């Protein structure tokens, strides 16, 4: 399957709007210097920005990959060089659009990879970012504001209450009938926590594509995927089990199950306009899957168990 690409002008247009993510009046944020917002501000302070860091400050409450994607247009890229040190970002892109896509992918990686982003010349911390850092350092020494207590509504005496009919959580005498027309699954990506507790698998899903929502799977259409790649419409299914060590009979049964799963996921991704890539740990696993379905797009991640 040929990976869809995104031209540089289109990529930058899609990233050109910064959505305000500041907390509302009734919300509280952790003023600790160890908070994700503070960590994002510190990381962004290393780079030059054309908007004085305003987009970064607005988006700092998000995960770094989301911040990087939304504010990439404001980065002074004349002073920044990107190196795909891990070779993860360019794995599916080989045409003229690749430099812009790879640059965003490298910049938005959840972890800081030494030598991946190189800044030319000295950097003066952007004014808005410095103000945000200063504010957090001041707030870190103050006691957190306690939310106002909710006023409880006086309850009726038990003798005056009307009992709810059994089977009706709302208390309706005649509850509404269940929906008969199924709703169409949404094509909007819905992040949900990684399923299960497979730490090596989840780390691979977060770092290899890399994942736009670290720590999260994503629902698209009717299927659950291990990752949505930063900066592009590509969904990933990650396999890290030790396929090579299985007996031949078990390998065949595993391939039957995987091909059925991957076909469903690829179809769901295509319906919603996403590309689909399978990440496996070994070349042998890739070869075995391609023998079953040569149209699959498969990448060897090298992720260990």
UniProtKB/TrEMBL annotation:
One Pfam family name is DUF6310
Keywords from the UniProt entry: Membrane, Signal, Transmembrane, Transmembrane helix
Against PROSITE patterns, the record matches this protein to: PROKAR_LIPOPROTEIN
Query: Which residue numbers delimit the DUF6310 domain?
Result: 181-303
Is ATP-binding included in the keywords of this UniProt record?
no
Region annotation (Disordered) ranges: 140-198
First and last residue of the signal peptide: 1-21
Biased-composition ranges, Polar residues, are 149-162
Origin: domain of life: Bacteria
Q: Give the stretches traversing the membrane.
A: 101-129
Name of the protein in question: DUF6310 domain-containing protein
Which source organism? Hyalangium rubrum
